[in-house]
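User: Hello! I'm new to structural biology and keep hearing that structure can be predicted from sequence alone. Could you demonstrate with D-arabinono-1,4-lactone oxidase? Please show me the input and the output so I can see what each looks like.

Assistant: Of course. The first part below is the input, the amino acid sequence of D-arabinono-1,4-lactone oxidase. The second part is the output, the predicted structure written as tokens.
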Amino acid sequence: MSHLLSESERAFFERIRYGAKGFEFKNWANTFHCKPLYYLAPETECEIIELVRIAVRHGLPLKPVGTGHSPSDLACTDSIMLNLGKMNRILAHDPYACTLTVEAGVLIHQLNSMLEQRGMALSSLGSISDQSIAGAIATATHSTGMAFGDMSSTITHLVIIDGTGRRRECSATEDPDLFDAARCSIGALGIITQVTIQCEPAFKLHAVQTPDTLDHVLDSLDEVVFSAEHVRFWWFPYTDNVAVWRANRTTQPKQVRVKSFWRDRIIGYHYFQLRLLKSRLLPDDLPGINQEQFSSRFNRRIEYIDDSHRVFNFDCLFPHHVNEWAVPWEKAANVFRQLRAWIMAEEQKPDGVRVQFPVQARFVKESDVWLSPTYGQAVCYIAVIMYRPYHRAVPYKKYWQVYEDIMRTQGGRPHWAKAHKMYYYDLKKAYPKFDDFVKLRRECDPNGIFVNDYIRRHILPPDEPILTA
């Protein structure tokens, strides 16, 4: 393809080339990979506009990528991949409105530092801070707390370069349809270059984690969900054991959590990974491993106070397969009971499926972001995980199929960052604004340069022609 580019276009590509030739992209969990024809790192909006025009001219698909944390092929392409890591500047700070405007390539942990220096913080934050801000909002990344929305809902203004090379600014009052679609666009509408984030004054969180039982939590779910500003829990399959985490804002002095090297690093990481490696050959060990992990690490009260972002974040251990859907939060108990019944039934079969801990529940406020799983409803995100010890394969597909079947019957919507089996006609039913999004996508990307396998599989009507080369 490079021989089709003009001399000036080749020189432009060489100037912003990122990394060595032959670069292979792999996501964090090492479950998806691709070899883009070009891996580029623009530094300005003008360079992105020029890239879009070249892509249209030659029919070259174009995909931005963050840090590759999405456990799916969302960012994969064999054409042009853009790394926005060099676009990481602060553009504006409004201390009175408590907003910060940054370029799209800023990583969340960089954003946390920027905000901390200015006496501000994100109101809610997910488990990790390694994603770029654009990647986080593209998939409606979320934390937990029934009074708090996902990260997409915290955006008050953004700039996007669409598939014609047009620079478009939008907000709740300026091009509001594009705004509500672009805040969770999975890269289908264009390349977001800057965002303004609604923050709040910096705060500390007082977190308390306690053991409980699944039946008690499900029977009193209304009470549990609203028992603190931020609530999540983990269930340990094959047991009735649950660890419930609650956090509230506080003005008390810090009481930093001191981790035990033996309990958290040796038992909770190295020994756990070795046991999971063995369970690939002896899957009947998994129920005992789940019980061991609860007894050794979670069957006690843990209490600490720290800066908000340090409390929200936690160690996700090693690479894993993960599937996560959101259901109306009132349906969460039904999901857990059905999933538990299936897991226990499988345990009785000599060749039945065996699963790992945890099954995680988090709760998020409704939003008006068109493709956010929280659109029009407060939800419970339920995640199932199968760790990959030392990057080795583990069986998970039957577990995923049953889990997705249960979530679908309860009105579930999949997390966009995860690999899932919900397609065009399913999504039309699940999202009231899906048809509007598809129509807007055609307007924003008439040549299909932002279409990759993921977009084609989940967003495009099956009979829609793809115009890219």
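User: So the tokens describe the shape?

Assistant: Right, they're a compact way of writing down the 3D structure. Reading them back into a model, for example: DSSP finds 15 helices and 20 strands in the chain.
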